[in-house]
Amino acid sequence: SILAEHNVQVTTPLGTIEGTTLTTRLGKTIYSFRGIRYAQAPRFKPPVPVQKWSGVYNATADGPLCPQPTTDPVSEDCLILNVYTTK
């Protein structure tokens, strides 16, 4: 089991991102940044780089799944990544 502890913020060239710290079953603290957009997905066109944002980007939850056979919610706009790193 992994336990959420508290939120953490990092500054990137595109803006500030808020994620969470988690504690693994082995007691190790990790940073979790989920649902980070890495490109815009204009329909029927190649992806374009994401623009800088103002405010704090909420990266505390997974983004949408890409279309696939599943009963979970999906979206064509799924150019999202998750980043996990040690503290």
Question: Would you give an account of this structure?
Answer:
It is built from no helices and 7 strands. It has 87 residues and is mainly beta. The mean pLDDT is 87.
What is the succession of H and E elements?
EEEEEEE
Strand fraction equals over 45%
> How far is it from the N-terminal to the C-terminal residue, by CA?
18 Å
The number of distinct structural domains comes to 1
Radius of gyration: 15 Å
Pfam family, one: COesterase
InterPro entries: AB_hydrolase_fold, CarbesteraseB, Type-B_Carboxylest/Lipase
Protein name: COesterase domain containing protein
Keywords: Glycoprotein
State the gist of this model:
The protein has about 90 residues and is mainly beta. It has one domain (about 5-85). It has strands at about 5-10, 15-25, 30-35, 40, 50, 55-60, 80-85.
Brief descriptors of the model:
single chain, 87 residues, mainly beta, 5-stranded mixed β-sheet, two-stranded antiparallel sheet, 48% strand, flat
Q: What are the SSEs and their pairings?
A:
Layout: E1 3-12, E2 15-23, E3 29-37, E4 39-40, E5 48-49, E6 56-58, E7 80-86
Parallel strand pairs: 2-6
Antiparallel strand pairs: 1-2, 2-3, 3-7, 4-5
Keywords: Glycoprotein
Protein name: COesterase domain containing protein
Pfam families: COesterase (PF00135)
